[in-house]
């Protein structure tokens, strides 16, 4: 089986694990995601790798090097998806990492450094509102007291969900690899935006990752009859939430020159009915950018707006910070190497920031890290129509293979 056929076969196998009828739903710590993870572990064993799962659910599949005591080169991404997502986000990078190993096996290349293929747990925030939990655990950034009581849409806590996967949240710190020598980490990912396709580039060399600040905001008013409650006596939680959302849009537009964005991605009306003034609403807010100063201005305006809305409308507002992450510049040395590889292979590329968060931003805490993008057709991602051609994926694998080889070979 050639590389193209093998890659497509592995990708198809991964995407058969799906709980939805529209797109791919393989949400973290669910039966579908765990079955997919187990299947991937078997694939790694079939490739001759020594496989283990850490205390957060990260899969670590190791190919020994010529010198076992040298620090490993890590490469990978994630297998979980958003609700009704696509077939490429995350899984493309995990299969790319395994394909690099298959190619080395085919060529009978034994690298000096060990290579570890990583599938990170719970990269997406869609279930619990916090992203990249697996790489946070590996980088010593997992706050179990802050995270254990986070709930999904069915009221299941993160602690409960992990327990159903035979994982104990109180032992997650054992997944911490801080202080362990690691040579580098590489991640290949679809762009999730339109830039590479529009500029006819095949590789995006990521210079830095914009990090999110996320909030769950509960607005509490008073439910009342829509026909008998005068407008001036209402404590309408939905209108308060709407005012917060519109002000958030306004300030984000002002910060557009700095690339900062803000989104209200969830709005839930408790016990909503057409003839009831909404008494309780929860919204979830995502604010992100590569400029810390710009992002903070948006955060400050959000808190000022919350105070204003409370006073104006007589509402109670509870604002819970879900995550606060710093923008992360990636390794200049790896960026330079990736440029050189693209030029040698005559592959058109673009240096660019990432507006989306990735496991790579946490891995930068442990070792030099590189992230490369491949094009997304029409810029779609987190959507059933998400698509990246196999030809573009394999160009990314070509670059990734060379990056891994360069770092896994001793130059002395």
From TrEMBL:
Signal peptide: none annotated. Residues 215-305 form the Peptidase M20 dimerisation domain. InterPro entries: Amidase_Cbmase (IPR010158), ArgE/DapE_CS (IPR001261), Bact_exopeptidase_dim_dom (IPR036264), Peptidase_M20 (IPR002933), Peptidase_M20_dimer (IPR011650). It comes from Ureibacillus suwonensis. It comes from the Bacteria. GO terms for molecular function: hydrolase activity. Belongs to the peptidase M20 family. This is Zn-dependent hydrolase. Keywords: Hydrolase.
